[in-house]
Design goal:
Layout lengths: L9 H14 L4 E2 L23 E2 L1 H9 L18 H9 L5 E4 L9 E4 L10 E8 L13 E6 L1 H7 L3 E3 L10 E5 L1 H4 L1
Helix pairs in contact: 1-2
């Protein structure tokens, strides 16, 4: 069973992402956790190793107000949203996501870095929290984006997993995805 979506738009999604960076310092990283009930006060679930845990998809789904498990509407990978299935959906059936040009990224979009190895389903995703004004010295499109994410690297470095990515962290392999309006409902 999936939890009902909250119907957030991009600004609400970005607002949730920014609030999580500021206030959800106790959330730890754990693969496969978080993002089930969008009505929860944070993205975490009770994990196997940590009392409150999430991974990057759990964080992005919660910020967007959707359950990461969508068996009736999301047909790839048994109904589970992961980095690979989100990209496959955007480039194929398009039930949930639309791929947008990188320079058209807006707050609330997902920036997805696919897995490096076929079939692993372990890429990375962040939520566009803010878009900065373009300036002449910016080298790449990601220099304009402030991306909130949940990562094992931040968890190891800071002791909590939700933070902003460093500018330019996503490379040319990253894809910008936008949740379709009808999927948000």
């Amino acid at each position: 069973m999936s939890y009902p979506s909250l119907g957030f738009d991009g600004e609400e999604t970005a607002g949730r992402a920014n609030a999580a960076v500021r206030y959800h310092r106790k959330v730890r990283y754990e693969l496969g956790e978080g993002g089930r009930n969008p009505a929860n006060p944070n993205c975490a679930t009770s994990g196997r190793r940590h009392s409150i845990a999430s991974d990057c998809i759990g964080f992005a789904a919660w910020c967007s107000g959707i359950d990461r498990y969508q068996p009736a509407r999301f047909r790839t990978y048994g109904g589970w949203i992961n980095t690979d299935s989100a990209i496959i959906d955007a480039r194929g059936p398009g039930d949930a996501f639309t791929e947008v040009p990188r320079w058209d990224a807006v707050p609330g979009d997902w920036v997805v870095y696919p897995s490096r190895f076929r079939g692993l389903q372990k890429g990375h995703v962040g939520v566009v929290a803010r878009v900065l004004e373009a300036v002449p010295r910016q080298r790449v499109w990601t220099d304009r984006l402030v991306i909130a994410h949940c990562s094992a690297g931040a968890d190891r470095k800071f002791g909590y997993s939700i933070s902003y990515l460093e500018v330019g962290s996503f490379t040319s392999r990253a894809t910008v995805l936008r949740l379709k309006e009808e999927f948000r409902r």
